[in-house]
Each structure stands twice: as structure tokens, then as C-alpha cells.
Amino acid sequence: MVFRIYPKLNIFLKIIGYQDGYHQINSRFVKAYGEIYDEMEIKAHSHFVLKGNFNCAMEDNLIFKAKCAMQKFLSTQEKKVQDLESLHIEVQKAIPQGAGLGGGSANAGVFLRAANEFLALGLKEGELMQIAQSVGSDVSFFASGAASANVRGRGEDIESFVESPLNYDIYTPNIFCDTAKVYQHYAAAIKSQGITYSTPTNEYFKLTSKELLDRGETKEVMNDLFVSATFIYPMLKDIARELGDKWYFSGSGSSFFKLKGIKCSKK
Q1: Which residue ranges traverse the bilayer (predicted)?
Q2: Rounded to whole angstroms, what are the CA distances from 251 to 7, 35, 144, 197?
Q3: Do 33 and 108 belong together in one domain?
Q4: Quick check: is 249 in a domain?
Q5: pTM (2 decimals)?
Q6: pLDDT at 82 (0 to 100)
Q7: 19 pLDDT exceeds 80?
Q8: Spatial distance between the Cα atoms of 212 and 21, rounded to a whole number of angstroms
Q9: Is residue 29 part of a domain?
Q10: Can you tell me the mean pLDDT for 45-71?
């Protein structure tokens, strides 16, 4: 079985607080259907194999962590876990890493859905979401199967949002943004610069992604992490200026996106 894995974009990203060791977010996640995607092939094998250009040790890979989390959950349900050890998984990577597009989380979330289908495990969506929460913050979105969702908490509270899919242009500069460092700078700014957390974005949650992008808000307003990312990676500020308005910033970066066909003015 072969699965196509698309990246996600944060139409907006607001940090509304800090709880239990995690920043709490309000965001709209959408899948960006287009030319950028990973492909995952799953087939039966004599033992577990994970192949792909991941640039990390297998024990640090989110697919491997998802497999372990699924095994742990199945064992608590007194279901067979050994079938997961008979999978050969190969991923052709195209979603850039450190880009705010959720590539690693996308792989893990789709793996959970794919393994459930391939092995006929019979896990319900709620159970897949429960497993996903233990793997990583953005994994739940991809495990949900939603194309668009309002996201709360640390990324595990997913509310599917029904809207027509949009076409996006995505520009990813050759800059790897370290998510932890961007969040750390944001947290330091909260403490030292008198910056306050955003208020919950109930109004944003009601609007379609096109309505949100058509409001003409700045990158700083639409994404609370943009300023911190540009502080750590100053070249992002120059790139943002060169791209112009109507280009927005996804997650902790480094990718920018806009609606396809929209003309921009440079500042």
C-alpha cells in the first residue's frame, strides 16, 4: 500500500498560555494539497524495517515512536502487537524539515492510520487520536484525517473544520528552524519584555481560511512565533520583506505561504 502525505500550514498561530510544560495554542491547520508531499509504502516483511532520508536515529524517528506507542496501546487492550513488527516501511521524503510544515508529524500520523488499515487492527478514530497524542504535538492532526481543523491545547485538541480546499504557493528558504529554540525565545520574551499571551481566537475559529487570509493582517498578527523566528534567523526578515505582503509564516518556520494567484506588494 502506498500513501501520499501532504504538509500542513498554520493559517494562523496564536499562543494563549503555558500549562503543564507546554505552550497552549489556538491555530487553524490545513493540509496543503499540491506538488510537495512525501510517499509512504507499507508492505509485509519478516521483521520491522524503516527506510527513508530522515537524518536521525531510528529511535528518534516519529514513525518509530508511533509504532511503539501503538504497540503499547494494543497491549493494554489485550490485542496482538507482533504484527507491527512485520512491517516494511519506506518513505520518499520531499517535505522539507525544519520548515513549519509538520513533515515528521505527518509521517507519524499517516503511519498510524495506514498501519491500522493495512493490518486490519480495527482501531477507531478516537483510539488513533489517543495514541497520536503520546507521540507528538502535531501528530493528532494527521492521525485525524482532517483536511482542515481548529486546533487547541498543545496541538492535540482537533476540531475538524469543513471548508473548500484552497491552492497555496509555498516558499521554503534554505533555513532549518529549530522549533524548540523559537519557542524558547518566545517564552523568554514573555518574561523579559512584557509581552503578553494572545487571547483565545474564537472569532478566527468561525472564519474560513480564505476569509482569514483576506483580512490583510500582518505576518506578526497572524503568527505569534514570527518575531521570535526572525530574531533567531535574521535572514527570514529579509526574505519576508522580499516576498511582500500576502505571504504568511507557517508554524515556527521557515516556510512562507500565500493563496495561489494572489499578487503581493513589497515593503
Answers
A1: none
A2: 12, 20, 19, 16
A3: yes
A4: yes
A5: 0.94
A6: 80
A7: yes
A8: 30
A9: yes
A10: 94
For residue 79, is pLDDT > 80? Answer: no
Q: Which residues are annotated as a binding site?
A: 96-106
Angle at 103 between CA 64 and CA 85, to 5 degrees: 20
Q: Which residues of 30-67 are buried (b: 16+ CB within 10 A; e: fewer)?
A: bbbeeebbbebebeeeeeeebebebeeeeeebbbbbbb
* CA atoms within a 13 Å half-sphere pointing along the CA-CB vector of 224: 24
Residue 49 inside a domain? The answer is yes
Active site (catalytic) residues = 8, 138
| Centroid of chain to Cα 233 | 20
Specify if 265 maps to a domain.
no
Task: Tell me the one-letter amino acid at 16.
Answer: I
Is the distance from CB of 61 to CB of 90 less than 8 angstroms? no
How high is the mean pLDDT of the chain? 94
Q: Can you say which residues are annotated as belonging to the binding site for ATP? A: 96-106
Least confident of 116-120, 141-145, 191-195, 201-205: 191-195
